[in-house]
Design brief:
21% strand, 28 strands, Topoisomerase I, Chain A, domain 4, Palm domain of DNA polymerase, six-stranded mixed β-sheet, 719 residues
């Protein structure tokens, strides 16, 4: 049983008696259950977090200057009423995995070790239509558990003789025994790939009213695409879905965000070929496949470092781990701001605003299309957080004034205030004083700068924490929605980018592209004359001039840094370019290589043509290489000798990853990725070559090579 203790007592145990928090879960609307370890002993405590807040001297309120009815909803934490509400209260107090039970933003957590258990379900598709997606009502065929500590077990309704597998169960028994096994083993991490949407939903349906209290329905979609699933709430166990986190968090832009694709990227054990679940010939193959998926899910969690990154994010944002693994930025930001406000003896005014303000994002310059050499990338460091700090942009500091008559996005100031023209309203911010958002961001940026080299994982989570503070102000369903503040930040950002472009240009560099906080610049004759052709030295001089100018504005903390140098860059369109690095690798932005909706031959064409252009010493050489490549592809396509990967996108069908291509008759064909097929004979040559043509032209037209006809007829191939 658990022992009731006060928040103060728990904080004392953590600070002075070596207790480490290993799990925190909800007991009621006002209390949490906390697991700790100390000297190899385990403890369970009940903590009433509402009492903890009542004992704090919160004598002031951070007022929301944009609220329709200010001070209508005041509390130390966001006024959410979902399952995680009490966990958010606990997290604001520092009660989280590896937490220190102290209040305030930017905290570091203790690295807590624990076993990682992967799990996976397979469904009985014998009565399902091929090509469809199975519903949660489809009977569960088998389940598998594999843990890093050596434990493994599986359950199935099939008749089979496999080691550590309980067979001949009903579908419901498979699910019940799976839940019981998880509860008894109690790993720290229970990891399933897409488990919130699929595995847990299937378990919940199959079990009916059994274990109903263990299934918590949660939002797992984005702001634009709302979806729901279930978290399995087993005491002492964190049920996590790396797929949900990776598809939303920055830094995981895998070309193939499937279990197979991510495992391959991370060097984890790869998925085995899926047996036919519509006509099962060997039950042992199904169990092996099921167990393999469990192993892969666990290994992805381990090798990606998410077991360290997500607890770190939870600690520095003062948010529940489940908000972080689902990447709910509004919850993360509001919890972090709440904790910082509470540290200063304040509650927050969460009253809503219905104000509608025209919003314009970051400035994107029209690129100077084509192939450029010796390109320098310069960018503002932490642009939006720094703007919020310098301009004191925060809900309690903003004041809405009447229309100024100035154009939208105009920025001006005097000795006391900064003004931003926003359509039919003017936002005003003070040039002195402190704000709650500023306090959070100053702490985040300061700590991040001090740990960048020594603890990059912690530094990454601090960067995410800072970015969520800005992001949640522009999302109308966020507790921190503040449209005037959000639109003002981007307006000042555009002003700062324009200033950088003017100074770079005025001081002899050529700006060939700009996007939000960065510029791509190249040398000019002035570089050769004044800096002996040293593009880097020229750029650094321009940045020094920029910083001198920024010192005269209300934004003196803004700093543009030299991010990277590239021997070659191709600019195709806005948000679409590729950069060659000093080590010979090429980074692609917005192009087919980086897109999941492009067929294989287009990805290859993007890589090949960009390499031909950037690696060739002369345009003639590049033209000849491109011409030969075009002819080779056209001949291969016409001879029907392209592979399924060449002509297809990768999608999922019948629970298998499949190549999907358009046949000659216009219908779609699905070929399982694992199937040993070297070529296909019924794809639409016309469609494939049209996509190939578009991909090549995306690079050749801006680089001055012309159409495919121009390239081929002017090459040595034509001769």
């Amino acid at each position: 049983m658990y022992i009731p203790v006060s928040y103060e007592k728990l904080a004392y145990l953590v600070a002075n008696n070596g207790h480490v928090i290993t799990w925190c879960g909800a007991l009621s609307q006002d209390s949490v259950l906390v697991h700790t370890t100390s000297s190899c002993r385990r403890y369970q405590y009940e903590v009433n977090v509402d009492n903890a807040f009542n004992n704090l001297a919160l004598t002031d309120v951070v007022r929301n200057g944009e609220a329709d009815n200010p001070l209508q909803t005041v509390s130390p934490v966001p006024p959410n009423k979902d399952f995680f509400a009490v966990l958010r209260k606990a997290s604001v107090l520092g009660i989280t995995l590896g937490g220190d039970c102290t209040i305030g933003a930017a905290k570091r957590c203790v690295d807590v070790k624990g076993c990682v258990c992967g799990y996976d379900l397979e469904l009985n598709l014998s009565n399902e239509r091929r090509g469809g997606f199975p519903l949660p009502s489809t009977p569960v065929l088998s389940s598998a558990l594999w843990c890093s500590c050596g434990y493994q077990e599986s359950f199935t309704s099939m008749d089979c003789n496999v080691d550590k597998c309980t067979a001949n169960l009903t579908s419901r028994q498979v699910c019940m025994m799976t839940i019981e096994a998880i509860s008894l083993h109690a790993p720290m991490w229970l990891v399933g790939w897409n488990c919130y949407s699929f595995d847990n939903t299937c378990l919940h349906y199959a079990l009916g009213n059994h274990y109903e209290d263990l299934f918590k329905q949660v939002k797992i979609g984005s702001a634009s695409t709302v979806d729901y699933g279930y978290i399995l709430d087993v005491v002492g166990v964190y049920n996590v879905d790396p797929y949900v986190y990776m598809q939303r968090s920055p830094g995981y832009s895998y070309e193939d965000l499937s279990l197979y694709g991510v495992a391959k990227e991370l060097g984890a054990p790869t998925k085995t070929d899926m047996p036919d679940l519509y006509e099962i010939s060997n039950p042992a193959d199904v169990i092996e496949y099921n167990m393999n998926d469990s192993v892969v899910a666990a290994q992805i969690w381990i090798r990606s470092g998410l077991g360290v990154e997500i607890p770190s994010l939870a600690a520095c944002t003062c948010a529940p781990l489940y908000d972080c693994v689902r990447y709910i930025t509004g919850a993360m930001a509001s919890c972090e701001v709440s904790s910082e406000a509470v540290e200063h003896g304040k509650q927050i005014d969460w009253s809503k605003t219905t104000r509608e303000v025209k919003y314009e994002g970051g400035k994107v310059l029209e690129p100077v299309k084509g192939h450029h050499r010796d390109v320098v990338v310069v960018d503002y460091s932490s642009m939006y957080p720094t703007i919020m700090i310098d301009a004191r942009i925060s809900p309690e500091s903003v004041l809405a004034l009447g229309e100024s008559g100035r154009p939208y996005g105009d920025v001006w100031w005097n000795a006391q205030f900064i003004y931003v023209a926003l359509d039919d309203v003017t936002a005003r911010f003070p040039r002195g004083g402190r704000t709650v958002l500023g306090d959070v961001l100053i702490k985040n940026l300061s700590v991040r700068n001090s740990v960048k080299a020594s603890d990059p994982r912690y530094a990454k989570t601090l960067k995410i924490a800072s970015n969520t503070v800005y992001g949640c102000m522009g999302y109308e369903n966020s507790p921190m929605y503040s449209p005037l503040c959000s639109a003002s930040v981007t307006a000042i950002g555009r002003w700062c980018l324009n200033l950088a472009c003017r100074i770079l240009d005025h001081n002899g560099m050529r700006v060939i592209y700009g996007d939000t906080d960065s510029c791509l610049v190249t040398k000019t004759p002035a570089t050769d004359t004044l800096y002996n052709g040293d593009t880097k030295k020229h750029a650094l001089r321009c940045l020094a001039v920029l910083h001198s100018e920024l010192e005269k504005t209300p934004f003196p903390s803004m700093r543009m840094q030299l991010e990277s140098l590239h021997p070659n860059v191709i600019l195709a369109e806005k948000k679409m370019y590729c950069k060659k690095n000093a080590d010979g690798s090429i980074d692609f932005k917005g192009m087919s290589v980086a897109r999941r909706d492009a067929i294989g031959i287009c990805k290859d064409a993007c890589r090949a043509v960009s390499s031909f252009i950037m690696d060739s010493e002369t345009a003639e050489t590049a033209n000849n290489l491109i011409s030969r490549y075009i002819c080779d592809v056209v001949l291969a396509a016409s001879a029907m000798s392209l592979t399924p990967r060449d002509v297809s996108m990768v999608k999922k069908r019948d629970q298998k990853r499949c190549y999907v291509y358009t046949k000659k008759d216009g219908t779609d064909m699905f070929v399982p990725v694992g199937l040993s097929v070297n070529s296909v004979y019924d794809y639409s040559v016309t469609r494939v070559l049209e996509k190939f043509r578009s991909e090549v032209l995306r690079l050749t037209i801006p680089c001055g090579f012309g159409s495919l006809h121009d390239i081929v007829t002017s090459s040595d191939v034509w001769v």
